Amino acid sequence: MIPFNKPFLTGKETDYIKDAVASLKISGDGVFTKKCHQFFENKYGFKKVLLTTSCTDALEMAAILLDIKEGDEVIAPAYTFVSTVNAFALRGAKIIFADSSKENPNLDADKIEQLITPKTKVIVPVHYAGIACDMDKIMAIAKKHKLFVVEDAAQAIDSYYKGKALGSIGHMSAFSFHETKNIISGEGGMLVINDEKYVNRAEIIREKGTNRSAFFRGEVDKYGWVDIGSSFLPSEIIAAFLYAQIENLEKIQAKRGLLWETYLGILAPISKGNFRLPVIPDFATKNAHMFYIVLNSLDQRTKLINHLRSKGIHSVFHYLSLHKSPFYKDKYKGAALEHSDLYQDNLLRLPLYFDLTLNEVEFICDEIMYFMEEYQSGIK
Ligand SMILES: *Cc1c(COP(=O)(O)O)cnc(C)c1O
Questions:
Q1: DSSP characters for 356-370?
Q2: How far is ligand 1, taken at its centre, from the CA of residue 156, in Å?
Q3: Looking at the domain 249-377, which fold is it?
């Protein structure tokens, strides 16, 4: 059986967790959390990093930091995970769904401006599969209309737009270390703040609305309730796990990249007329978070999933367009989102994880090829 995902362990996780436990400093913001913060700030040029207990939490922090309130409008793709928009809906925002682009599931930057109203406050681009949205266009629109940009970079660690790390371009960004992502801590995430003026308040919101972080740095002589907030910081046990992963980032990325290239190389000749391969725009890199194909129809995708399952291969589709979700469909008054719907029906993700072998990738691709031959001839 080839699963869709299998979390990779570097072997150091439990050693570091033991160290954290032995130090008897197991609540948040200890040695391992600081090491993680430093690593990300140095490697990717992020102004300020704060580990959180999830990407969802990081997005919720962003919504609080930007003072999102009832009636504000937030533009986000419909083809995304619920947390992208839930974080803002929680503050009372109205979500304005944008369509994906034709070439990949990222939101279509050329269709954003028509969605802007006097109530718009934030654009939330999602770098789907770790492939960059057109950030120059999005930042220019944001500047022109005085909007904030929060990158949902949950899938985008170690990926770039015109040489800049994803997550370093918007006012803020949110990453995930959920066990399905490239580097993991079980559950976990981080908020990146690129606009310095939000740093202080972010620390306060993350520490239950108190100025405890400033207190521990000796900047104030007592700490207390200074703002709204919640408990968004992870324990040192989670940071210790993450640090073991960070140390192996290059190794993890090299292997994932090799698997991704192998899929692409084998599937390219088979794809013609049968399915589309991922498109990486010139301005973007891949971080091999995911390998997906886009089939021609829902029928073809369903039958391919079943065929692969019969061979012990677990492939999975992805999001259901949020504007058609049970929670939102009655509230949605916008236009049809044809590309979002297309990815909902036709996109399929193939297994990709560190321990997957090149032989297994070849086996998966062979089975896709056999299926396509049968599907074309009407047998399937
Ligand atoms: C994984 C993911 C999230 C949520 O991450 P958590 O850490 O599980 O909260 C949000 N947005 C996108 C696009 C994701 O892929």
A1: --HHHHHHHHHHHHH
A2: 10
A3: Aspartate Aminotransferase, domain 1 (3.90.1150)
- Which residues are paired to 190 by β-bridges? 51, 175
Angular region, 208: left φ>0, alpha ψ -120 to 50, beta rest: left
Distance, CA 78 to ligand 1 centroid (Å)? 14
Cβ(284)–Cβ(129) below 8 Å: no
Instruction: Give the rounded distance of the alpha carbon of 340 from its chain centre.
Output: 17
Domain 13-246: which CATH class?
A: alpha beta
pTM, rounded to two decimals:
0.97
Can you tell me which atom of ligand 1 is nearest the CA of 80?
A: 13
Task: Report residue 52: phi and psi, to 5°.
Answer: -130, 175
Q: Ligand 1 atom 6: the closest Cα is on which residue?
A: 55
Partners of 94 in the beta sheet? 73
C-beta of 364 in contact with ligand 1 (< 6 A)? no
Residue boundaries of the structural domains of the chain: 13-246, 249-377
Please say whether the dihedral angle defined by the alpha carbons of residues 134, 140, 145 and 148, taken in this order, is positive or negative: positive
Nearest by Cα to 263 from 368, 363, 361:
361
Q: By the 8 A CB rule, do 211 and 204 touch? A: yes
Kindly report, residue by residue over 141-192, the tens digit of the pLDDT.
999 999 999 999 999 999 999 999 999 999 999 999 999 999 999 999 999 9
